[in-house]
Amino acid sequence: QIQLAESGGGSVQAGGSLRLSCAASGYSTSRICMAWFRQAPGKERERVASIDRDAGTIYVDSVKGRFTISRDNAKNTLYLQMNSLKPEDTAMYYCAAAPVGYCYNLQVSAFAPWGQGTQVTVSS
Questions:
Q1: pLDDT digits (tens, 9 = 90+) for 47-76
Q2: For 110, which DSSP code?
């Protein structure tokens, strides 16, 4: 059973940077799809970025060029480097795993388990 634990959230001003981490335990995640999602109050959960077993990445348009997803297989840890943060990036950020190798066209329901989330707040 995979367990995921996010860290690294916080409050920053617009234009700032944060690096989120997601430590996995109980199972090696190196060969499965891993993703970062976010959910702002009153909005649906949105997949921000994902990385597959071959390190192929997918980003939502709103974060392209600003966010970078990566993984350290030796540490069984997923990262999200967030630069040039905007107030609209404010949300609870979650990491999640899907029990398949590739992330393309996966629905939110395909991802389980989820971490507990880490809050990111960007002020203008």
A1: 999 999 999 999 999 999 999 999 999 999
A2: G
